[in-house]
Specification:
Oligomer: homotrimer
Helix content of chain A: 10-25%
Number of strands of chain A: 13
Number of helices of chain A: 8
Radius of gyration of chain A: 20 Å
Chain lengths: 351, 351, 351
Amino acid sequence: LSEDKAERGNYFEDFRLGQIFDHATPRTVTEGDAALYLALTGSRFAVHSSDPFAQAIGYKRAPLDDFLAFHLVFGKTVADISLNAIANLGYADGRFGVPLYPGDTIRAHSEVIGLRENSNRKSGIVYVRSRGVNQNGETIVDYVRWVMVAKRDPAAQAPSPHIPTLPDAVPPETLIVPAGLDPTPYDRALSGSRFGFDDYQPGEKIDHRDGMTLEEAEHAMATRLYQNNARVHFDAFQARTQSEGGKRLVYGGHVISLARALSCNGLGNAFHVAAINAGRHVAPAHAGDTIYAWSEILAKAELPGRRDFGALRLRTIATKDRPCADFPDKNGDAYDSAVVLDLDYWVLMPL
Amino acid sequence: LSEDKAERGNYFEDFRLGQIFDHATPRTVTEGDAALYLALTGSRFAVHSSDPFAQAIGYKRAPLDDFLAFHLVFGKTVADISLNAIANLGYADGRFGVPLYPGDTIRAHSEVIGLRENSNRKSGIVYVRSRGVNQNGETIVDYVRWVMVAKRDPAAQAPSPHIPTLPDAVPPETLIVPAGLDPTPYDRALSGSRFGFDDYQPGEKIDHRDGMTLEEAEHAMATRLYQNNARVHFDAFQARTQSEGGKRLVYGGHVISLARALSCNGLGNAFHVAAINAGRHVAPAHAGDTIYAWSEILAKAELPGRRDFGALRLRTIATKDRPCADFPDKNGDAYDSAVVLDLDYWVLMPL
Amino acid sequence: LSEDKAERGNYFEDFRLGQIFDHATPRTVTEGDAALYLALTGSRFAVHSSDPFAQAIGYKRAPLDDFLAFHLVFGKTVADISLNAIANLGYADGRFGVPLYPGDTIRAHSEVIGLRENSNRKSGIVYVRSRGVNQNGETIVDYVRWVMVAKRDPAAQAPSPHIPTLPDAVPPETLIVPAGLDPTPYDRALSGSRFGFDDYQPGEKIDHRDGMTLEEAEHAMATRLYQNNARVHFDAFQARTQSEGGKRLVYGGHVISLARALSCNGLGNAFHVAAINAGRHVAPAHAGDTIYAWSEILAKAELPGRRDFGALRLRTIATKDRPCADFPDKNGDAYDSAVVLDLDYWVLMPL
């Protein structure tokens, strides 16, 4: 039957605990991806902008942005995991491994590590650990996400519930430092920020000040670049006909990238994202929204055997159409209505 | 006179049967073009995404998308052939030759192979055979198109009519198989589709399901990337002032690329477009339209001496703002009002 | 204090005559930048499109577009010079040096060469000479611009006024010819224009005919590609809330690039921009505007010891929503209301 040829994706009842997915499509990344990422996000971190700057501190050359790597891996998981997603609920226990360089080829795999049907029996939560590897099998990024997936048939039998135990945060002593990294020659005039690890204190809040307005063409180009084929990002006809005035949803990862790029103003020496502790897309973003961001220093950690740089645990909040000079946040479980993203992560920064 | 310096393009009465054009502008293609093509179309075919995947089946590295090559060649022909076009009427007898790789340089030539004035004497049909070659003079793609071109002066003498004889389809035994191609190691887990040549039957119809909404910035960027300078794609002021509510026309080739990218869902192993048998832009597309597509298997052909893959003759129909679950088509000569493209072509697919 | 971490940029009273800025962020340019520039501007000059074409006349390979180099340098100066700019007033004495190739890394420096407080004491004019260099310290482009910058505190003491002496135009005998350049094999069939240096006469005017409509996503992508972080180009929420119906300002350099790209139709052999004599953004451009352009030949100059090419001094005027068949210009100081750009520059062209 012809309808078998075009994939409809997996529904909640199709998943099994321990199930492994080897995702399509392998992807060789290039300088073209790097240029597009820059043009789509406005990132200005020196290590991703300049080969000599990156080489001076021990990289082979300018690595691709950490979140570009993340999105490429995430994109590959969509066809198997979340084509029938109702909502992308969260991330945890994400660690970045080897840098991703132009010329490397990414593949991705996922394992189902948790399943729980919702009480309405129309959907369930799927927990997966996804891993992106390069052509040598080295891990680029490894993370857990959970997502609410529709059932094809509400009457279908659901597997017995299993909710994985996840750490609140990646322990800093397990952060992976790219091999050969030596930030001694790190040049703070070139990076554009004079502040290093020692200048930041837990509890400190930073308003990143700038705003970036989203356009349909931009988030759609970014999401296609990642070969993420979730139709909610692309099909305005469906969005319009399914709810009055409906618009395409912006891929949440694009908001993460914008928030990270905005954070360069205030955290310009946070040259590497080492881990994702937790992340939540608090509210959807749409074309026309202007994204702002602020960050809080949650913790500082020295790294085993390293006296040249340390790790900052950051919480970055992104909002839409609301500048962040007064740090909009949540009260208990209720977020300020402008908040779209709450991301908890570790970055590396020279001392 | 200054007005001589800025080209106004050729009018119908300027063309002569047998006339040869060596088109400007030579173009070295790069990984940047490949990344942009992916970001603009959402293509997910593995062979164009991954160097190792492409190398495993005999390519030097990931070739650029076949239609990207086609558009680059087409773009070069515009300044000489169709700057004064009223409508791009059709394609025929198109064959793809050697793969196009990053670093190659494209040039293009055309020969006028047919001319016929319209009865209103205000315009005429120009038939050209266009050929794109790489820096070694090897043919990348070779095709016939015909286009209705305005006359500068309705009273001008027209050449005697000559309509070329064109095949209904490219005979499958003349399809060009890229040298060294050996799809034995072709990996259907990585390509994202488990279906091969043997799984498809003539008459089978496939709804590609997904929809892709067009934005002005997207089609304009694609068309500029191809250095196609037909002003109808770029000048909104002219479009608005020449007809109320008028909008820029989307380059028909961008719709072809979107339809091909959408077809990955259902034809994910159709890794190479080998020929264009016929093509018609049934109706214009504009920014805001959401493109859907479905395909029919018109025929299957084994290739001389090849037991590892075969050729499928496909007809892909693209629509705007109309999902294709019920395969909107034509009745006699009258197309469903949503149809924008009817493309007949050969693809290669592993057995 | 956290507010120290996010840069607010310099205000007028922060500048000192003779002050030197070593700007962040170093940037390695790639084929990805070249492809994006082409997709965003529609440029069709052969020397930037084809490696063999460029090599035939003595370049190492296709250099990046001259204005792409300029914008990358300009972008780096923004964080230090013009984050609090009210208006970018003009350019002068700009000369292009060595070609910029993929793989090169750009850095930028500026010196404050003039300061003058405005009579209202709320702002002042800052004159800077900015210089972009490659990884070998060779100058890519060197130019003066002046910009009106707000004061943080109107009561702040201003430095004594100093207005630099600037030439009306770069003397043609000081134009820098890229080393090794030999346009003897320059192929006018491939470049798309049959006109050379000898065909142009001072006083001649050329309507470039085509129009290019600006989209928000396009100018924002271009401006982010240059890592220009002036918020007026990106933050639609601020634009909307600060003035009713307010829209983001298009980076004036994007209009320069569009005008240069449009000028290919009429000046297709002006293969290299050698100097910027003067430039003025007469009026702002916004998304939705359609840019047109015309040029006047101001002067012709032979170059010392060169019989193979000469320099044309051009004035290119760009308009919005107004075709240029009748060469809209200024009467005294009053420009036609459609004019957005008045650019005076030298180009090289084969004889």
